[in-house]
Design brief:
Layout: H1 3-10, E1 23-27, H2 56-64, E2 71-75, H3 85-95, E3 100-105, H4 110-123, E4 128-134, H5 140-146, H6 151-166, E5 172-180, H7 188-198, E6 204-208, H8 223-238, H9 251-271, E7 284-287, E8 292-294, E9 305-306, H10 314-318, H11 321-333, H12 340-348, H13 354-376
Helix pairs in contact: 2-3, 3-4, 4-6, 8-9, 9-12, 9-13
Length: about 375
């Protein structure tokens, strides 16, 4: 994705009224082979029924009724359970010009994942694709959290195979994603050492257990452990131990955003209070696997409509009085949470926060320059 491709979205920083979503969280399935303790899909809203999932043809109708997208997050469940994942991404690539796509995975289906990724990269030229392989701990700790024996070994195998594809395909990035919970918060630095020293990871990022997880005890983590881990990641990015998204345009902006987001999340948890406006329902949308449309996946009390019931007229749902009321509720309540995906929107599209992003971006640029100078003199 070139600079010119981003320009149409830049105006959203200052002009949001009447906006269509530019960031879409798309649940393509609720089915999953794992039973993670921190999973949100145990909230009673999601139903792991294949028969209820939107088909590729239905998703094509959706895409044709949406404006261009900056980012697409096909999620689940386990996204790679669907054999048509590549077709789904191509639908939005062709119809909505989306060039930034991120796919989370537990990494169990190694061959299927690798083949699907190859297919996406070959049929969607110019796409910036990231695959986030979940690793919450080393060996038994990971398997215990995820509820599947042997999942750690499968995830590591998948990660290594995907790293090979990075050398072949420009614009492809594979990342390690850790969800911090009460079951691994004391092992985060051990995880980091394994990721960097054993797996030679270049991109590591962290999520925080939120909302109503399958195991309620997952939320009783120690925020100090999260902060220590986040600081370790930040230092590693600045020292170029973790290069983070170098295959993507504006890599330093992405990393700057992550550094600010870590601090914002920690502050939010410590104070349990609103920090910045949320653009859920304005710039971001969530669509569940059965076609239900929400401003955010966490606000299941604010359902905007259903795609099948509205003949896939997404714009009618998005511009309805019900949607406007949902936006008003989010705004008036000063709704806040630690949801990393929408915090990305809230950071990058808030003009008041751009100076902070620029400051961290400049620090990263200078650190990168310093590293290059030192390497020349070694």
């Amino acid at each position: 994705m070139d600079l010119m491709d981003y320009l149409p979205f830049g105006k959203k920083i200052f002009f949001k009224r009447g906006s269509s979503p530019i960031y879409l969280v798309l649940f393509i399935t609720d089915r999953c082979n794992a039973r993670c303790k921190h999973c949100l899909l145990a909230d009673g809203v999601h139903k792991p029924q294949k028969s209820a999932e939107l088909t590729v043809d239905e998703l094509k109708l959706l895409a044709q009724n949406m404006d261009p997208l900056l980012f697409l997050l096909p999620t689940g469940g386990e996204p790679f359970i669907r054999s048509d994942l590549g077709e789904i991404i191509k639908v939005f690539f062709m119809n909505n010009k989306v060039r930034n796509v991120g796919i989370p995975t537990n990494g169990f289906f190694t061959d299927k994942i690798v083949n699907t990724v190859k297919n996406i990269l070959e049929t969607c030229p110019g796409i910036d694709l990231g695959v986030d392989v979940s690793l919450d701990g080393v060996k038994e700790i990971h398997d215990e959290i995820r509820g599947v024996s042997g999942l750690f070994d499968k995830a590591v195998e998948t990660y290594k195979e995907l790293r090979k594809l990075e050398k072949i395909y420009e614009g492809f990035n594979v990342n390690i994603e850790t969800t911090v919970s009460a079951y691994n918060d004391t092992h985060l630095l051990e995880n980091y050492d394994y990721f960097v020293n054993e797996l030679k990871a270049h991109t590591v990022f962290t999520l925080l257990t939120r909302d109503k997880p399958r195991d309620a005890a997952s939320k009783f983590f120690n925020i100090e452990h999260y902060e220590t881990y986040a600081q370790k990641i930040e230092e590693s990015i600045k020292k170029r131990v973790l290069t983070g998204y170098d295959a993507f345009p504006f890599a330093d902006v992405i990393n700057a955003k992550r550094i600010i987001r870590h601090k914002l999340i920690a502050k939010m948890v410590r104070e349990n209070a609103y920090q910045i406006p949320c653009f859920a329902g304005v710039l971001g949308a969530a669509i569940f696997s059965n076609g239900d449309v929400y401003p955010c996946e966490l606000r299941t009390d604010l359902k905007l409509g259903n795609l099948r019931a509205s003949n896939f007229d997404f714009k009618a749902i998005w511009n309805s009085k019900q949607a406007e009321q949902a936006r008003k509720i989010i705004r008036d309540e000063k709704c806040f949470c630690t949801y990393e995906c929408f915090l990305t929107l809230n950071l990058l599209f808030n003009p008041l926060l751009l100076p902070q992003v620029f400051k961290e971006w400049l620090i990263l640029k200078l650190a990168k320059l310093r590293t290059r100078v030192l390497q020349k003199h070694v």
